[in-house]
Specification:
Rossmann fold; about 40% helix; five-stranded parallel beta sheet; about 160 residues
Length: about 160
């Protein structure tokens, strides 16, 4: 099956590494959408499969409303169970991101990485910025280069 993603064309069976669930708000503050898109681009370039790359599209809110809330829940829970790693950009965090993070840290042994802009840290729930769970890495950043460096240094190709 052939997919297209902005400026990248790839074939489904070209993935060689991890299945990654990228968490990003659909209904909340999407001001970090460009960072989330760049995260997707880097992960795809590194040959990881991003199960939720649709979340960074401009029509993500509308697309999710084409199916029922139950279908969204079942789909996302399936992807959370399938993923090898959960990465989220939580600068505009939402209840959904908190749910996903809490589910993974409480019910699984999967690793979680939470990126957020340092300049909005005081607007993010303390339950997110205060996480001390051993399977969770908090990754505050001041510019995208720090995010890219973290990803390339910590997720092998």
């Amino acid at each position: 099956m052939l997919y297209e993603y902005p400026a990248i064309e790839f074939i489904e069976d070209t993935y060689t590494d991890m299945k990654i669930y990228l968490g990003f708000t659909v209904a909340g503050d999407r001001s970090a959408v460009m960072v989330a898109r760049k995260i997707v681009d880097i992960l795809v370039e590194m040959r990881h499969e991003v199960l939720t790359r649709h979340l960074v599209e401009d029509n993500a809110w509308e697309a999710d409303r084409r199916i029922t809330p139950k279908e969204v829940y079942l789909r996302d829970m399936k992807w959370l169970d399938q993923c090898d790693l959960f990465i989220a950009e939580v600068s505009g965090s939402s209840f959904g991101l908190g749910f996903e993070t809490g589910y993974l840290l409480g019910a699984t042994t999967k690793k979680v990485v939470l990126f957020y802009r340092q300049d909005v840290e005081t607007k993010i729930s303390l339950l997110i910025t205060g996480i001390t769970h051993p399977n969770c890495t908090l990754a505050p950043y001041s510019d995208f280069n720090e995010v890219e460096i973290w990803i390339r240094n910590n997720l092998s190709q």
